[in-house]
Design goal:
By secondary structure, the chain is α/β, with parallel strands linked by helices. The chain has eight helices and ten strands. The strands form two sheets. The protein has a six-stranded mixed β-sheet. It has a four-stranded antiparallel β-sheet with strand order 1-2-5-6. A hairpin with a 4-residue loop joins strand 8 and strand 9. The protein starts with a strand and ends in a 5-residue tail after the last helix.
Length: 237
Amino acid sequence: MINTENFGSNASFNGAANAAVRVEHRYIARGWYTPPGATALLLGTFPSVLIREAFGRVRSSDVDFFYGSADNNFWKDLSLIYQTPLLYARTEEAVQQRMRLLDDLKLALSDAIFACTTSGSAMDTALQNIELNTGIIRTLDSHPSIATLYFTSSSGKVNAESLTLRLLKENGRLSGMKIIQQSRPRRRQFIYTDAAGIQRMMHTVTLISPSPLAEQMAGISPLQRRELYQTWLPKKV
């Protein structure tokens, strides 16, 4: 779902100067995606493919799903790690392939941001008027088997790690947080309290972002990133 906010007489929907567009996370709005028996939840910030879509820049190789941009390395890494061929096309089969892999991993996907405004850039730093995804709390409440949170962004003011932890803390769901490993990857643990007051231990693992820009800024090779993912992401069942 999208709408425009005009900040000048020359503003237009197609992303011209002085125009900002509110982009809503329609994957979350559709209820995507938590497999039955999920044991972990992986969180990014906001899909660049939805921003590309809002500004009319979708390509035939962009998959209509989380991390769907043809430029993003997430599904390329998982395809190699789990030896699972994946289509890179704007088709229902490409989406279903990814859902089946997530089912095998018992890995849920979501993002820290439900809606935001942008003038066209998909960089985290360009996202404004951020509306946090409170659905994360509903997912954790309704799936007590989830005991691990993975984050795929952690740098800058807008990132999945800080936004998610802030959301949980502000809603009284997070307490007793400790850092148990400082880096590569950063790991935390905390007590999560659900709506019924039942507490459970949660663990977090902060991975390297699969975006090409993050790869350059972090000074990490694709092989190093994949090794990190292979070590810490769930095993295929």
